[in-house]
Design a protein that fits this description.
Elements lengths: L1 H14 L2 E2 L13 E7 L8 E6 L7 E8 L7 E9 L3 E8 L6 E2 L2 E2 L1 E5 L4 E5 L5 E7 L12 E9 L7 E7 L5 E5 L3 E8 L7 E5 L4 H4 L3 E6 L4 E6 L16 E4 L20 E2 L6 E6 L5 E6 L4 E6 L15 E5 L14 E4 L4 E6 L4 E6 L4 E5 L9 E6 L2 E6 L6 E7 L2 E6 L4 E6 L6 E7 L6 E6 L5 E5 L4 E7 L14 H11 L7 H7 L6 E2 L1 H14 L1
Parallel strand pairs: 24-29
Antiparallel strand pairs: 1-38, 2-37, 3-4, 4-15, 5-12, 6-11, 6-13, 7-8, 9-10, 9-12, 13-14, 15-16, 17-18, 18-19, 19-20, 21-22, 22-23, 23-24, 25-26, 26-27, 27-30, 28-29, 31-32, 32-33, 33-34, 35-36, 36-37
Helix pairs in contact: 3-5
Length: 534
């Protein structure tokens, strides 16, 4: 009888498994997590709004910066700055069209001054004007005792979008204040998060149009990517609505490299202008097709660039745009509404930021309803669609959802307002919230991405940082005494033999090989880990 029972236990040890509802993402819900700063403003990360990993280059991470706002035309803009006393200061002002701010296109001017002196002034220059000076006396102001307050006063001309400037330390190049040329930019990390990590800052010279107030980006499967623009008109026409997604090639011999001095329009591959205030974008999984969150029309829009024009060209006539007005969404100014596609089902999960919820849209649904008239350009198709299949997916527990990603029945959402990162189990309907990562970064987190090794990455907009979350879970520590030993092996074997019931957290820790099963393979893996640590 004892022999028979022993044989039964051996058979059970080999064959019995427990199917877990968990995966590697669930490790974030056990114990403490570390928020590791991977990138900062020193790399060029400034107002980051989204991130994505390159589809064919391992560990290459792209960060999308929003870019500077455009100065209004024919207006006065005053910037107050505190700078150290008795420091050699340089003020440089630039004009991207090489005609200054006076007097070919209006009567623009600039002044750098405090209560006692004018240190720099002008307006009639070509590409750049530069002045160095030292401030020896302090005016009564709110600056620290060893600092002085100065004003940079810019009176813009008819082409304010061409203006940028810097105020910096002449000796060590410390920047005290700056106004970059408008338009988004990217920071590219090679070997992201590794000891060999390097970074490259790239900004196309025509990004003031093609990345105007950049809000989101998405890679395809080969190395093209597209971005959206949170602006009404990419040419800054106050009465215009010429704005929409832009297509690029990530090849650095092309991107932000070709046509930087004209005569063509930079290095962009294509752009279609039917979605003002576009707040999110996701690759559709075929060709040059992308889904766009259209904030102006409160619609989800399918953009097909078809065949890109020449690098820097402007022929959009083969473009196809399908607008799904039935999908009820609302933007929130200043906060991207990111989206993610479940490739296996065709479901598009959407951060419906203005409505404080997540919705799901069946991208395979919808039929032609009628032709629409495109704004400002000729297109092959501009269709209004009908009979779209969509629904409210998550309708509680969210204040301002922004970032979103999906992996193996886990939906991960960042809430911009609270700073929480929420993990949902999508095997249930409605999906079940199974836990939150409390970051403490209120009004900061935008784009989020599940990257290599299923680690969660995100951008912190207000801190100008790129962050990876590392979980500090000791895999295999079944009894959670922070040590791997024979007691953990016994607990694991007993659970397989159903002699001991493990908690949900213990089951997650027990899954050594991350296959979603608890069985003899996990026992072997745990034993090997313990032996190798001796």
């Amino acid at each position: 009888m004892l022999i028979i029972n022993s044989m039964k236990k051996n058979i059970l040890l080999l064959l019995i498994t427990f199917l877990l509802p968990n995966n590697q993402i669930d490790y974030y819900l056990i114990g403490d997590n570390s928020h590791v700063i991977i990138g900062t403003i020193e790399d060029g990360v400034e107002k980051p709004r989204d991130l994505d990993f390159h589809p064919t280059i391992n560990d290459q991470l792209w960060i999308l910066n929003q870019g500077e706002d455009v100065y209004p035309n024919n207006s006065e803009v005053i910037t107050n700055i505190c700078i150290p006393l008795n420091t050699d200061i340089t003020f440089m002002i630039f004009d991207s069209a090489d005609d200054g701010i006076c007097c070919e296109s209006g009567e623009g001017s600039y002044i750098v001054s405090d209560c006692n002196n004018i240190y720099a002034s002008g307006g009639d220059y070509e590409s750049v004007d530069s002045t160095s000076f030292i401030i020896n006396t302090s005016c009564g102001n709110s600056c620290d005792p060893f600092e002085s307050s100065i004003d940079v006063i810019i009176n813009t001309d008819d082409w304010a979008k061409e203006i940028s400037w810097e105020l910096f330390n002449s000796d060590d190049n410390t920047i005290y204040a700056k106004k970059l040329e408008p338009g988004g930019s990217t920071v590219i990390y090679n070997d992201a998060g590794l000891s060999s990590q390097t970074s490259i800052y790239k900004k196309d010279s025509y990004s003031r149009h093609f990345m105007h107030t950049a809000s989101a980006l998405s890679f395809d499967d080969t190395g093209f990517f597209a971005n959206t623009l949170e602006c009404q008109d990419a040419n800054n026409n106050p009465n215009g609505y010429f704005s929409g997604p832009t297509l690029w090639d990530s090849d650095l011999s092309i991107y932000a490299n070709l046509n930087q001095d004209g005569p063509l329009l930079g290095s962009h591959l294509d752009m279609i202008h039917q979605s003002p205030f576009s707040m999110g974008i996701e690759y559709a999984g075929l060709g040059n097709v992308y889904w766009v969150f259209d904030g102006y029309h409160a619609s989800i829009v399918r953009y097909d660039f078809v065949m890109p024009h020449e690098v820097g060209g402007n022929d959009h006539s083969d473009g196809k745009v399908w607008r799904y007005d039935e999908v009820d969404i609302a933007m929130h100014e200043g906060i991207p509404s990111h989206m993610v596609l479940n490739d296996s089902t065709g479901e598009l999960f959407i951060s419906d930021t203005g409505n404080q919820r997540i919705i799901v849209f069946n991208t395979q649904s919808g039929i032609f309803q009628e032709d629409l008239t495109p704004y400002g350009e000729s297109l092959n198709q501009y269709w209004l669609m009908q009979n779209s299949d969509w629904g409210i997916y998550i309708n509680e527990g969210l204040n301002k959802p922004s970032g979103i990603d999906f992996y193996d029945n886990r939906l991960v959402v960042s809430d911009y307002e609270t700073g929480d990162i929420i993990i949902y189990n999508t095997t249930l309907y409605p999906p079940q919230e199974i836990g939150r990562i409390i970051t403490g970064y209120e009004n900061s987190i935008m784009g989020i991405k599940i990257g290599p090794n299923k680690k969660i990455w995100y951008v912190n907009y207000s801190a100008n940082e790129v962050i990876r979350i590392d979980y500090n879970t000791l895999i295999g520590d079944i009894n959670q005494d922070e040590t791997l030993n024979i007691l953990d092996v016994i607990a694991l074997v007993n659970s397989i033999l159903e002699d001991e019931e493990l908690t949900n957290q213990q089951l997650i820790i027990a899954d050594q090989n991350l296959d979603g099963l608890i069985n003899i393979l996990d026992v072997i893996s745990l034993v090997n880990t313990i032996i190798n640590s001796i």
